[in-house]
Design brief:
Layout (H helix, E strand, L loop, with lengths): L17 E4 L14 E4 L11 E8 L2 E7 L8 H4 L12 E7 L2 E8 L3 E4 L1 H8 L7 E8 L3 E9 L1
Antiparallel strand pairs: 1-2, 3-4, 4-7, 5-6, 5-8, 8-9
């Protein structure tokens, strides 16, 4: 039942450290249960994937936008206030894609960034009529959160 489940907190310094555990249940002998290796990667620290990705041309520049999501409890849907940040600072990395290859990574401190005509020319040889991009919110503890991708 859910009352039997509990989150076991872990120090962020233990990220990527392999530890051995034994899952012992009622009636089992500790010496008859084998070790299981587990490496805590801090998935619970990863920011959620941004939502509502969009892009519009401004001249020949692409202006990319998105909405952040939060891991914190919020009442946005009932009162319309902005979702709390849930991170030490607001920061994003935006990958510009050419198929499955990242051709450029942009950085932003708000929910918008501009992919300029000059950058497109460097990356693709000219201005693009459509682009594919991925957005990640950053965590001070684990780096990139979960990704969202859009083609516009």
């Amino acid at each position: 039942s859910d009352s039997d489940i509990d989150f076991i907190g872990s120090d962020p310094n233990s990220l990527s450290v392999e530890r051995l555990f034994r899952g012992v249940t009622i009636g089992q002998d500790l010496d008859r249960v084998s070790n299981t290796a587990f490496t805590y990667t801090g998935v619970n620290f990863k920011p959620y994937a941004p939502a509502q990705l969009d892009a519009e041309l401004s001249g020949s520049d692409w202006v990319l936008t998105w909405k952040r999501r939060t891991r914190l409890e919020t009442s946005y849907f009932t009162n319309g206030t902005a979702v709390p940040l849930g991170e030490a600072t607001e920061a994003y990395e935006i990958d510009i894609m050419d198929g499955s290859t990242v051709v450029r990574t942009l950085e932003a401190t708000s929910e918008t960034v501009t992919y300029t005509s000059a950058q497109q020319t460097t990356d693709f040889g000219g201005n693009q009529s459509s682009i594919t991009f991925r957005v990640y919110q950053l965590s001070a503890i684990v780096g990139r959160g979960f990704e969202s991708e859009a083609t516009v």
